[in-house]
TrEMBL record:
Signal peptide annotation: none
The UniProt record lists the keyword NAD: no
Species, as recorded: Friedmanniomyces endolithicus
GO molecular function: flavin adenine dinucleotide binding; N,N-dimethylaniline monooxygenase activity; NADP binding
PANTHER family (UniProt xref): FAD_NAD(P)-BINDING DOMAIN-CONTAINING PROTEIN, L-ORNITHINE N(5)-MONOOXYGENASE-RELATED
Similarity section: Belongs to the FAD-binding monooxygenase family.
InterPro entries, A to Z: FAD-bind_Monooxygenase_sf, FAD/NAD-bd_sf, Flavin_mOase-like
Region (Disordered): 11-38
Gene3D superfamilies: FAD/NAD(P)-binding domain
Highest taxon in the source lineage: Eukaryota
Protein's UniProt name: FAD/NAD(P)-binding domain-containing protein
Keywords on record: FAD, Flavoprotein, Oxidoreductase
């Protein structure tokens, strides 16, 4: 706004005594006649909001970018703080707002991705709002204030912070879990978890047990098998689909048999100099993925074809070994569990230093893993690639209206509103809540859409003087009931044990959205306020109309006739 300007209303016209050098005058709200019920600001003037985001991974940094860059006007009324418990930023994937033309390979390493995250955060100043080594210990809604009281711990000291809006950027695959195996911690060798990898330990010349064949185990086995002098045994409970629906060669437009091809210097140079080329490759990859959703329809010809294709591809990688094929190729639908490309995983078992067993582990002794078939597997290292707590439950008390704790609400059958909100939790929004888009399409794009949705709500809360917005229980119930009906038609409810169903074979699908990624995008493009209980800070919830004028009417740079069509 310009300095204070002497102005008054006369016959509906505004007269001012000064105009900026650029010719556009920006004026303060006019002085209106006194009225006890009048808000003497422009209509939709945003009030200042404190927003706290929990977690400085991909989602938290994405929100920092939205407040600072995608919607820069929000900086004038949003004070944003990100609390991160760990000592540095982290993340799993690449930001949609800053594609990287310099990835070394089609599937990049964790180290390379981490370097990209840190570099990109600095480039965009996303770490400006981050407070590292700050653990959230409790969040409690204080209805009298219309705010969340967030208790954080830093260097052993606890303090309370207050937020008008609380965002969770932690996701679901955060808190890793150890397997419940008798004697695990009696083992005298090295024990590590895939989610807390010790990069300084020398795995060369070791006998190594890898427990689990989820996405992490599938990535770890071939890397350990390649090390000098190792002997690796993978312990698994059952098979999983490991294949390429679309090989890298199709995405790259060039022939290659490498399951994880390196990008050529020519390709990287072309993408650096012509970002449109990089966008086209990413666009085409995502378009193919979205088109493939029909494959997840239970009993469809597309899924049957996928089963036949995957079976043939996996058998070939296993050198058509009858024992390996029987043990590693599923009999259930493709997509029932997460499909993993797993470059080099299946091929590892054809090497003399890599073994696999599906005999149940009975116990672990000081120097060996013992299985139900009577075998004793002597090992030096036990790697637990046993996944995460996928219950969606917060790891700290998150207490909303009427003392409802979300840890209890989401203990058994977690139910959300569109994966982004929960009943009894006012002004609380989360990334990757129950029934999120994590089984199909680009998760990064889905989180990007979700972040835009959060910003819509924050703008609405700020500009309409809203105290709180809470999903109606009836809306949450209806959404989950209908998702359940859709899931009956999809392979995610198929005949396999999956974390999509909280580690069960025949339970509800609680992790995945009931439909395609494109349907999800359509559903969160706009706020459905009718699905929320909204309370206001003013007795008259139209007080956001202010003095009857919008700010644009007193900004000479604005076109006040923009709506004329022809």
């Amino acid at each position: 706004m310009a300095p204070a300007i002497s102005e008054h209303l006369e016959n509906g016209l505004c007269h001012d005594s000064s105009t900026p050098a650029n010719g556009a005058a920006h004026h303060e709200a006019p002085s209106m006649p006194k009225s006890p019920g009048l808000n003497n600001q422009f209509a939709f003037t945003p009030r200042k909001l404190r927003v706290i985001t929990i977690g400085a991974g991909f989602s938290g940094l994405l929100m920092a970018h939205k407040f600072q860059h995608r919607f820069p006007e929000m900086q004038s009324y949003v004070e944003h703080t990100i609390f991160e418990g760990r000592k540095e930023l982290g993340g799993t994937w690449a930001f949609p707002f800053d594609p990287n033309p310099d990835w070394s390979r089609f599937y990049s390493s964790g180290t390379e991705i981490q370097d990209y995250i840190l570099r990109t955060a600095k480039k965009w100043d996303l770490d400006r709002d981050v407070r590292l080594n700050h653990w959230v210990r409790e969040a409690r809604w204080v209805d009298e204030r219309g705010q969340w009281r967030v208790t954080v711990e830093h260097q052993g000291q606890r303090r309370d912070e207050y937020a008008d809006v609380l965002l969770s950027g932690q996701g679901v695959l955060v808190h890793y879990k150890w397997p419940t195996i008798l004697g695990l911690h009696d083992f005298k060798g090295r024990i590590t978890h895939s989610a807390a990898w010790d990069h300084d330990y020398d795995y060369n010349d070791k006998r190594i047990a890898v427990i689990g064949n989820g996405s992490s185990g599938i990535q770890i086995v071939p890397q350990l098998q390649k090390l000098p002098g190792t002997d690796v045994t993978n312990f698994l409970r059952g098979p999983t689909w490991v294949y390429y629906r679309v090989p890298p060669s199709t995405h790259l437009g060039r022939e290659t048999d490498d399951p994880n091809p390196a990008y050529t210097e020519e390709e990287k140079k072309r993408w650096r100099e012509n970002p449109a080329e990089l966008r086209k490759m990413r666009h085409d990859m995502i378009a193919r993925t979205n088109k493939a959703f029909r494959m997840f329809v239970k009993g469809s010809d597309t899924n049957k074809d996928a089963v036949a294709f995957a079976t043939k591809q996996m058998a070939a990688k296993l050198s058509n070994d009858t024992r390996l094929c029987e043990m590693l190729i599923p009999k259930w639908e493709v997509g029932c569990r997460r499909i993993t490309p797993g470059p080099g995983y299946l091929e590892s078992f054809t090497k003399p230093n890599c073994h696999v067993t599906n005999s149940k582990i009975t116990h672990i002794s000081e120097g060996a893993v013992h299985t139900e078939d009577g075998q004793t597997h002597k090992v030096d290292v036990v790697v637990c690639a046993t996944g995460f707590d996928v219950s969606h439950r917060p790891q700290y008390p998150l207490i909303g209206l009427n003392d409802v704790d979300l840890r209890d609400s989401w203990d058994h059958e977690p139910e959300s509103y569109l994966s982004v909100a929960a009943p009894d939790m006012p002004n609380y929004f989360c990334m990757m809540g129950p029934n999120a888009v994590v089984g199909h399409g680009s998760l990064m794009e889905a989180l990007n859409w979700t972040g835009d949705y959060f910003c819509q709500w924050i703008k609405k809360i700020a500009t309409e003087d809203i105290k709180s917005a809470t999903p109606k229980k009836s809306a949450v119930r209806a959404f989950n009931d209908y998702c359940d009906e859709i899931h009956k038609t999809l392979v995610w409810s198929g005949d396999c044990v999956s974390w999509y169903k909280r580690g069960t074979k025949d339970g509800r699908v609680t992790a995945l959205f009931g439909g395609s990624a494109l349907l999800y995008k359509r559903m969160i493009e706009n706020v459905r306020a009718e699905d929320f209980d909204i309370t206001y800070r003013s007795e008259n919830h139209f007080s956001f109309m202010g003095n009857g004028f919008t700010a644009d009417e007193f900004d000479d740079s604005k076109d006040l006739g923009w709506y004329v069509e022809k």
